[in-house]
Structure formats: structure tokens, C-alpha cells
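PROTEIN DESIGN WORKSHEET
SECTION A - STRUCTURE
LENGTH: 452
C-ALPHA CELLS:
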């Protein structure tokens, strides 16, 4: 029996043994971080700053929970503001910007990247950049500046990308960067359908119509933050030439730490019940169980497409990078007898567009990596289970009220989904992306890094 703990309450989630492979993503990122022997710091002026220990800008850091709390101020003047959508926007811009710097096309993005930020990216090699994957995005600080009438947000992004110079072999890179965004008080947030598209933030003209931060179609200077978030500066904290670390064994961290509950959880639970009377803990737990089981099967089999209906598009694409890396290196990560021991609900949040619920997952199971050629174990152990915990955030559309589905079915017509229908329903043709219709996994955070 799987027990799900919601605050101080407990209920039984039903019988069954479930597997949860996604803690492996956290272990892979830890392997990346632990490999740091020499970190290089850069400033937004685009020149070398320091070697040795990681160079970190002097801006004060806050916990992500404190940053989110402060950013609630934005909703008072901008009801459309959503942290979830903002993170999607930042991830998309990061991908576009690195791809553009590889093709010497950064000027095209001048409405969203000020000169100092473009100079920093321009100091990196100008070779084609492919497969840009943001592994994590952390909110570092938020400030309201009444003197300049602007909001200032600092985020830290951890990524992998590939550079493919002509006439040479492609090289994989691990990067850690800190981006500083500013936006004027009067700016308004994008709707979900526009969050990943880039055009003139004032009139919507193609970016080809902008030069040096000015749109030639509407004749507006559009890089001031008056209309949308713009990157003021970029600090490159680390950049290392290396591929994904898929072998070896990394010790689990943070499992023994106390669970971090949001202080407003009780009130948020009551508000959730008021918004959607059909929401129940038992049906929500069934949805979580299905997500766990689906992902375990997809991960271990290297058939990641099977997990698409239960993840946000951004998370699914990010983890596709690791699946492909295993294939290219002739490896397969195996989880056996993995099972959930306990899940605790720690936070509920909502905005105009989305509802979000964060849970801490307690699980255990075998975790090892084999070489496909001879089935030799090259990481982990076949004979000892590994206990782990981590924080998962699930999201769904704020407009989606009604019974939560515990089993795979089409979000539009309700027809059962088979694994062969990973992207589109075979009955009505609906694209099976998820949060528009039901709870899906949006974020995975490690215990030692989670701060509420």
C-alpha cells in the first residue's frame, strides 16, 4: 500500500508497487556539478574575470520561495502574471539566444537582450549550437526599484548544449549562467499561447524588423523593458567541455532532511476545494501513481515518448536529451523493484493560468546502469536498493476543473490511450500535451536544493 501524506492528514492510495526513475536526473546533474575542478567566471562586459573557485556576482541571494512571495507584488498590477509562464519564457529565450550566438544572429534578439548581455554571449565561440537543454532554473532574487519604476529578477540556469564547428567533431558543454531581467511597472504578461514566440514586444512585427533594440515597423525602442522582460546582463559562472556523465555512482544527498512545508498550505488546500469541489486527494494520488509508473517504464526502456502525456512539453524535451545520451553511449539505466514509500503535499499555488501542487516523494529501489554490448554494470549496484526523496511539482490549467484522471485517457474525448498514442489520440487526433487538461509533472527539484 502506498501512503500519501497531505499536510497533517493521511490516506491510503491503494495497492501496487510503483517505480519512480526521475531521481536519476538529479543524480546526473550532481555528477555534472561534482566534476567542477576549475570554474571560469565572466561578466556581462564579456571579458574574463576569475579562475579557480566559482565567480558569483555580489547580488544578494534569496530562497526561491522568498522570490516567489515577493513576485506576488507583480500580480497586483498585472493580473496575467504567472511564474510558470515566466519560466517557460526564460527557458525559450535561453535556447533562442544560444542558438543565435552560434549563428552570429544575436542582434536579431535585441528587443530581449540588451547590449551588455549580447556582448557576453558574443564572447563565446561563434559556431553552430544545437540541442540546448536547460536542466534547471532557479529564482535567485527579485527587487522592485521605485526610482527606475522597474522590477529586477535574477535567475540561475544550468544547461547542456552542443557546439558543432565546421570541419571538427561536435563538443558537448555544461554551463551555469546567471541572467538578470528587468521590466517596467506598466508592462503586461504574455498569454500562454504567446509565451514561446518572439516578435516585437510592442506591435508584434517579426524580429527581422528590429535593429539595435528599435522596431522599424512601429518606430519604438523596445529593449527598455517597457513592454516585456529584457535581459540586462548575463554572468557566465561556469562552462566546461564535457558530455553528460552517465556512468559511475553518485551518493544520494538530502534524504534525511526535514520536509519543507509551505506556511500557507492549509489555506491553499481550502482555496483549492473552493475552486474545484470535485478535486479529491484520492483521485489526485491516482494521477500521481500513473505518472510514476509511466515514467519508470519509459525511462528504463529508453522509449521516452511514452512519458509525453504526463509531462509538460518543456520537461519532456529536457529529459529527452538524457535518453538520447544513453543511446549514443550504448548504455541503459535500469530501475528495478522501485516503489513509493510516501508522498507529502508541501505546497499549492495558483494564478490566472495555472494551478500547481508540489509533493515530496519518498521512494526506494535498485538503480544501476549497464553497457548494452555485454550487460556489464558500469554504474550503481544490482544488489543494494537506493533510498531517495525529491520534490515534484505538478501543474494543470486553472480552467480545468472536474474529476482528475488516474489512468491514461485522451484529455479531449476521454478515449483510452495506449503507449502507441504517446503524442496524439488515435480516436480524435488531439495532441496529448497535458497541463491544459489534467495534472502533469512540471519540475523536479533535489532535496538539498529545495527551499520551498
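SECTION B - SEQUENCE
RESIDUE ASSIGNMENT:
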Amino acid at each position: 500500500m502506498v501512503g500519501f501524506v497531505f499536510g497533517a492528514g493521511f490516506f491510503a492510495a491503494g495497492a501496487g508497487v510503483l517505480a519512480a526513475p526521475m531521481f536519476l536526473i538529479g543524480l546526473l546533474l550532481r555528477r555534472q556539478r561534482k566534476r567542477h575542478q576549475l570554474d571560469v567566471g565572466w561578466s556581462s562586459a564579456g571579458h574574463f574575470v576569475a579562475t579557480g573557485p566559482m565567480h558569483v556576482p555580489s547580488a544578494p541571494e534569496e530562497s526561491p520561495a522568498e522570490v516567489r512571495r515577493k513576485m506576488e507584488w507583480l500580480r497586483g498590477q498585472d493580473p496575467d502574471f504567472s511564474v510558470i509562464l515566466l519560466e517557460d519564457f526564460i527557458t525559450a529565450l535561453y535556447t533562442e539566444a544560444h542558438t543565435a550566438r552560434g549563428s552570429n544572429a544575436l542582434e536579431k534578439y535585441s528587443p530581449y537582450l540588451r547590449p551588455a548581455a549580447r556582448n557576453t554571449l558574443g564572447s563565446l565561440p561563434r559556431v553552430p549550437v544545437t540541442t540546448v537543454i536547460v536542466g534547471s532554473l532557479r529564482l535567485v532574487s527579485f527587487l522592485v526599484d521605485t526610482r527606475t519604476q522597474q522590477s529586477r529578477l535574477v535567475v540561475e540556469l544550468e544547461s547542456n548544449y552542443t557546439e558543432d564547428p565546421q570541419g571538427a567533431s561536435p563538443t558537448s558543454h555544461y554551463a551555469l549562467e546567471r541572467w538578470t531581467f528587468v521590466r517596467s511597472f506598466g508592462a503586461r504578461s504574455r498569454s500562454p499561447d504567446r509565451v514561446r514566440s518572439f516578435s516585437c514586444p510592442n506591435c508584434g512585427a517579426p524580429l527581422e524588423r528590429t535593429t539595435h533594440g528599435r522596431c522599424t515597423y512601429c518606430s519604438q525602442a523596445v529593449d527598455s523593458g517597457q513592454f516585456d522582460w529584457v535581459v540586462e546582463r548575463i554572468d557566465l559562472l561556469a562552462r566546461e567541455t564535457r558530455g553528460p556523465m552517465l556512468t559511475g555512482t553518485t551518493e544520494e544527498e538530502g534524504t534525511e532532511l526535514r520536509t519543507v512545508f509551505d506556511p500557507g498550505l492549509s489555506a491553499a488546500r481550502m482555496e483549492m476545494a473552493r475552486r474545484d469541489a470535485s478535486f479529491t486527494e484520492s483521485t489526485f494520488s491516482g494521477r500521481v501513481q500513473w505518472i510514476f509508473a509511466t515514467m519508470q517504464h519509459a525511462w528504463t526502456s529508453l522509449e521516452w515518448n511514452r512519458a509525453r502525456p504526463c509531462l509538460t512539453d518543456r520537461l519532456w524535451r529536457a529529459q529527452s536529451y538524457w535518453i538520447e545520451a544513453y543511446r549514443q553511449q550504448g548504455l541503459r539505466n535500469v530501475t528495478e523493484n522501485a516503489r513509493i514509500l510516501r508522498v507529502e503535499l508541501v505546497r499549492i499555488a495558483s494564478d490566472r493560468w495555472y494551478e500547481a501542487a508540489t509533493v515530496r516523494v519518498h521512494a526506494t529501489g535498485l538503480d544501476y546502469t549497464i553497457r548494452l554490448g555485454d550487460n556489464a554494470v558500469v554504474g550503481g549496484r544490482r544488489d543494494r536498493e537506493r533510498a531517495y526523496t525529491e520534490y515534484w511539482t505538478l501543474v494543470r490549467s486553472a480552467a480545468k476543473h472536474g474529476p482528475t484522471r488516474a489512468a491514461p485517457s485522451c484529455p479531449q474525448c476521454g478515449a483510452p490511450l495506449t503507449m502507441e498514442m504517446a503524442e496524439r489520440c488515435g480516436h480524435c487526433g488531439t495532441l496529448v500535451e497535458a497541463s491544459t487538461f489534467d495534472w502533469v509533472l512540471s519540475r523536479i527539484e533535489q532535496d538539498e536544493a529545495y527551499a520551498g
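SECTION C - NOTES
The first helix runs from residue 23 to 34.
The longest strand covers residues 377-397.
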